[in-house]
């Protein structure tokens, strides 16, 4: 048993360190603020549902960033909000803000993919050829639009960094660690064309390309159109870029409870069945198997006496060191005492979410049960 445990942990370590070294090695340095050479206007599309507590800050941040860029419009699509989201948005002094209500365009209450429908509505109504998207609880930086449009001048789709606003709790640091690793993995895949992913909270593309993609959009899944879009584009030999500049990042709040965190991650995991690009499927499968090896190795060590405990302790310490030094930026480092616990919980969470996503076919999203 001890040999099996040691073998699992050794193989995990080799793959894990090699993978982290790869994604870290291709992460570029942060470039300076760019100068634009285009005068095309841009439309920023935001789909919102029950975001009365975030929407004002989001719209003001988007407006400030777009005003630095130049000609623009902001399109807010309300997805059947049951709070004061629309009223709050309309009360703001933003002259180029358009508010569309999805209920005026979709009458089928059994419709599953409301956000996809809302995004399609906003983009189809856009006045300008350049589209940027973000979420209704996100806060982009002042030069967000400039950087994203700059990258779009020599690419067909641009996706950017997501950063978390979180507290100092274990849950907050776990989410920040997870999102940071996801961003680095996404950038590495796009950099070499091995796999393609994206997040609609920070994307830029051209309206005509999206409308071509929308003709074959899969509405059987409630979400995942961002990843599906970028994979479709890659299959069309389109050029996809990842903007790493921190000035182009968008800030989004972390989930504040373990329940909401797991619900979010289950939703993310269930939409992987709709991915068409084999590279991303191979990647997530490999990473999942490796995390299983780590968990199995630790469990076997617990049944292997003092030597097993020693191997488990050393393995956890090494993983904690690698996670903290390779993934987490220095300015957001979590306490050293938290590192071993965070490394164990992250692996357990990945294994648990993967298993749950295989068997759970419905989840709660924005107050709706989606199946």
Distance linking N and C termini: 41 Å
Estimated radius of gyration: 21 Å
Model regions low in confidence, pLDDT < 50 over at least 5 residues: none
In one word, what is the shape? elongated
**H/E element sequence:** HEHEHEHEEHEEHEHHEEHHHHEE
Number of strands: 12
Strand residue percentage: 5-15%
General description of the model:
The chain is α/β, with parallel strands linked by helices and 371 residues long. It contains 12 helices and 12 strands. The protein has helices at residues 2-25, 55-69, 85-90, 114-124, 144-152, 170-192, 207-214, 225-235, 258-270, 278-302, 305-326, 338-359, and strands at residues 42-48, 72-78, 97-101, 130-135, 139-140, 157-160, 162-165, 203-206, 240-243, 250-253, 363-365, 368-370. It has a 7-stranded mixed β-sheet with strand order 3-2-1-4-8-6-9, sandwiched between helices. Strands 5-10-7 form a 3-stranded mixed β-sheet. A two-stranded antiparallel ribbon has the order 11-12. A hairpin with a 2-residue loop joins strand 11 and strand 12. Helix 1 (2-25) packs parallel to helix 11 (305-326), helix 10 (278-302) runs antiparallel to helix 11 and helix 11 packs across helix 12. The longest helix is centred in the C-terminal third of the chain and has 25 residues, at 278-302. The two termini are 41 Å apart. The model has no long low-confidence stretch (mean pLDDT 85).
